[in-house]
Design goal:
253 residues; mainly alpha; 2 domains; two-stranded antiparallel sheet; 10% strand
């Protein structure tokens, strides 16, 4: 391990350092001050990156949990905007959060929002684009999700509703229906938009992301719900800006 790597390691686990030069630095009082500054910066970044989680549990609880996460999962990228890839998994295994089974899902949506926000720009397809194609040609079209499109399905829990209520400034006191939900995030323009989607829509998007043509994506959605309205599903995804330019038609036999 190089000196620089050993020094960085010491910031998060000073008791495990075996490099004599770094050990000498760790023993200096100024090192503790510097280490505390680094740790605080990482905790601040997590609190900024996971605002719905922080709002749900409160700042004190969040920062105590974040400190433990930072110690075990230091940043691997200098851009703290992307810090926290492991935080949802950490919360899922975090014993003090055992009574909040939806918390890791909320963290996952915070992370997906951040990914959508930082993703590359691209033009979005719309319903007018779809109308320009002959019906016989639509089945073979392959739609590509927009670079900023993110989605997730959560079985049995209203994770999206919980997340959305804690990302919005407007209070919502209506009763939650305790059932599975999906979430869609898009950024067709400058800001991230989000909405709830059903399981067939998530299956449809999964198929499109895997390079399957529209006919196969529709079959995937119908396998989830035989009564799904594919035309309405596709129109809603296009209106949301979920797709970008298409691949060439392909013959799937």
């Amino acid at each position: 391990m190089s000196f620089h790597d050993a020094f960085a390691h010491a910031l998060f686990a000073p008791d495990t350092v075996d490099d004599p030069a770094v050990q000498a630095l760790v023993a200096q009082p100024a090192f503790a001050v510097y280490r505390n500054t680094v740790m605080k910066g990482c905790i601040d970044a997590l609190e900024a990156n996971f605002p719905a989680v922080a709002r749900l549990v409160g700042s004190e609880w969040f920062r105590a949990a974040a400190a433990l996460h930072v110690a075990g999962h230091p940043p691997r990228d200098g851009r703290l905007l992307v810090y926290g890839d492991d935080f949802a998994a950490f919360l899922q295994a975090f014993e003090p959060a055992a009574g909040l089974s939806y918390l890791s899902g909320v963290a996952r949506l915070d992370a997906l929002w951040r990914e959508a926000h930082a993703a590359g720009d691209a033009a979005s397809l719309d319903t007018a684009w779809l109308a320009r194609h002959e019906p016989d040609a639509l089945a073979a079209l392959v739609l590509r999700p927009h670079p900023a499109t993110r989605w997730a399905w959560f079985d049995d829990q209203p994770v999206y509703s919980i997340w959305a209520r804690n990302r919005s400034a407007a209070p919502d006191e209506s009763e939650l229906a305790w059932r599975g939900e999906g979430a869609l995030m898009t950024r067709p323009f400058d800001s991230v938009n989000w909405c709830g989607i059903d399981q067939p829509a998530c299956a449809f998007l999964d198929a499109c992301a895997g390079g399957e043509p529209l006919a196969a994506a529709a079959e995937r959605a119908l396998a989830v719900d035989a009564d799904a309205d594919i035309a309405a599903l596709l129109a809603s995804l296009l209106r949301a800006g979920a797709f970008t330019t298409t691949d060439h038609s392909r013959d799937h036999r």
